[in-house]
Amino acid sequence: MKYFFSSFFILVFLVISTFAQYQWTGTGADNSWGTSANWVSNDVPPVNFTGSILFKQSGRSKPNVLNASRTISGSAGSAAYGLFYNVNSPIAGIHTTDLNSTTLTLKGGTLQVGYNTSNSHAVIKNGVLQLGDLSTRTDIYVGYNNVSSNLGGISTLKIQATLNMTNIGSINVGRHVAGNAYGNRGGTLDLSTASINSSLGPNSLYAPLGLFVGANSGSPTDVTMGKLFLPPSLKNIDVGSLSLGYERNANGTIDFGIGSSLTNFICRGNLYLAYDGYGQFINMPTGVTFQIGTPSSRASIYVGCHQYSGTFRTGVLSVVKGIFKGYLQNLYIGEMPTGNAPNTSSRVDTVSYTHLTLPTIYSV
Predict the structure, then answer these.
(1) Residue 117: enclosing H or E segment and its boundaries?
(2) Where does the pLDDT of residue 91 fall: very low under 50, low under 70, confident under 90, or very high at 90 and above?
(3) What is the CA radius of gyration of the chain?
(4) Which of 126, 172, 226, 331 is surrounded by the most beta carbons within 10 Å?
(5) 47: which residues sit within 8 A by CB, 6+ positions away?
(6) Whole-model pTM?
(7) Are 50 and 20 in contact (CB under 8 A)?
């Protein structure tokens, strides 16, 4: 038994001791990740390591350029590991990471821009960004807050590269999940010029733990805004659930891009569209197969529901000249469940072939 505990202690110590964090300064004579003067304490990150790389206020005046392909490892979806652009400064500036025709892999952990911070802006371009591997997922957070604060300002991430979503859990863009927030906040994720691949194949996005755009589960007093811009080349979207304009003072937009090639959109869990907030799809093409729920797991649709005081809310879900499949538990359209909301107006428009498996329609 003593041998067992000694071995356990040594194992835990070794795991903890492998964590490392590196912070960019950009004070070197060039822009390379391989130059020691560009890092705090002249400490260049190894090509492969477990931990995180952090970009803050310094070094935003010039790009940071990878000198080799690199891998950052960490626990699945853990906010302690990954690649972080958390600036939290009102001064304008963008961190531009030039992949320089290499591959940057996040094996687990998170990609963060404005995580419990604000006014954080990043561009990742010119190479391959791989998120997750076959066994370890990576989550995305842009303009995300899970604490009470008075921060204000939008955070943005633009990816101009090949984006291999090998194993993504959730995508969070402009999301507030706990506590009180004072000041306009949110996030924009611009993938309009990215080439997206996932485990579903080329031109596919897969996020089994959910897609949250302009979503609020806390109590902000000002707008929580989220915008997701997708490339017109994207053909398939498969998400565990979708919150688009969810709860008080939330505003969410998904733009599929002009001339979108989208053919399939699957939301396996609940769909919240303009649920006590503002939510909208832009440039959704005709001919899409749009599915909510699955034959083995029914889901609910909430469109234009409103329960708190504020301005007039509207919500529209329109699937035109395509196929709408609903394996539904509940369908709520323009409902006021409780509270002191003003009038609300909503519509579900399926000018297409429609297949619904629905036990009950509530509060339409």
Answers:
(1) none
(2) low
(3) 22
(4) 226
(5) 68, 69, 70, 71
(6) 0.89
(7) yes
